[in-house]
Amino acid sequence: xxxxxxxxxxxxxxxxxxxxxxxxxxxxxxxxxxxxxxxxxxxxxxxxxxxxxxxxxxxxxxxxxxxxxxxxxxxxxxxxxxxxxxxxxxxxxxxxxxxxxxxxxxxxxxxxxxxxxxxxxxxxxxxxxx
Amino acid sequence: xxxxxxxxxxxxxxxxxxxxxxxxxxxxxxxxxxxxxxxxxxxxxxxxxxxxxxxxxxxxxxxxxxxxxxxxxxxxxxxxxxxxxxxxxxxxxxxxxxxxxxxxxxxxxxxxxxxxxxxxxxxxxxxxxxxxxxxxxxxxxxxxxxxxxxxxxxxxxxxxxxxxxxxxxxxxxxxxxxxxxxxxxxxxxxxxxxxxxxxxxxxxx
Lengths: 130, 205
Prior knowledge:
In chain A, 50% of the residues lie in helices and 15% in strands. By secondary structure, chain A is of the alpha/beta class. A 4-stranded parallel beta sheet of chain A has the order 2-1-3-4, sandwiched between helices. By secondary structure, chain B is mostly helical.
C-alpha cells in the first residue's frame, strides 16, 4: 500500500482542533494519520510550539504532511516548527493557506484517495479563493 | 565606540528580561486587551518563568550557545505569535556570537536576528509590531554611535510611535482603523527585552 499524506490541525482552541479532527477523520474513514493540537502551554487559548512539533512527529509520512491552522500565532508557530524539522521532512511538510475546518476536510478527502502532497494542498487551498 | 571590547552577560540578560516581563505583566495585558486577545502579558510571563528555570544551566555555556538557548526557550514557552518571533530573533542573533566583540560585530549579529523576525513574520517596519522597535534599534546599532542611553531612548520612542500606526499583522489588524491610538503590546515587550540587553552589555558606553 502506498503511503498517504499526513494531516496536522493546529488551532488556538483544543475544542476547535478536536472538532476539526473529528470531521476530517470522518471523511478519511480511518485510513489516515491525522493529529491535532490546540491551546497554550499552560492551558487556555493559544498555540504551543512543542505541541505542534509532537503532532508533526506523530503523522510523519514519506508522502508528506499538510498543516491546517487558524489564526496568526498558529501559523507562525507552525512555520517555525516546520523550519526546525530535518531537511528531508521540511521539504515535504507544507502549510495550507485555507480555512481550518473546510481545509482539513478537503485535505483529508484528497489524502484518503491517495493524492500527492501538492494535490492535497492545492485542493485544500482552492477553498480559500472564495 | 569602534574597537572597544564588549561582553554580553547572559546571566544578567536572562534575569533582566524575566524581571521586566514579570513586573510589566499588567501593563502588557492591558495593551493587548485594547487591540488583541489580552494574552501577551501572560505569554511573556510564562516565557520569563521558563528562562529563569534554565538560567543556572546557561551560566556554564559559551555566549553563543546561551543566547541560542534563550531563543529556544522563548520559542517553546511563550506561544502566540511572539514566542516564535522572539525565539527566532535570539536563535538567529546567536550564531557566531563571540565572548568579546566590537559594537559593529554586535550590530551585525543583531541585524541578522531582526532580519529573521521580518522573514518569519513576513513583516516590515510600519505595520505595528515588535519590528517597529527592532528595526530602528538595529539601524542605530549599525551607525556605530550607540550608547546604552541612546539604545533605550530609540527603543522607547519607537514603541511610542506604534500608537499612531494602523495594525497590519496579528489579531489587531482585524480592528482596522480602530487599532490606531494604542501602543502595540509586542513593541512594548520588545523595549523591555532590549533594555535588559543594553544593561547586560558590558563595555557599552
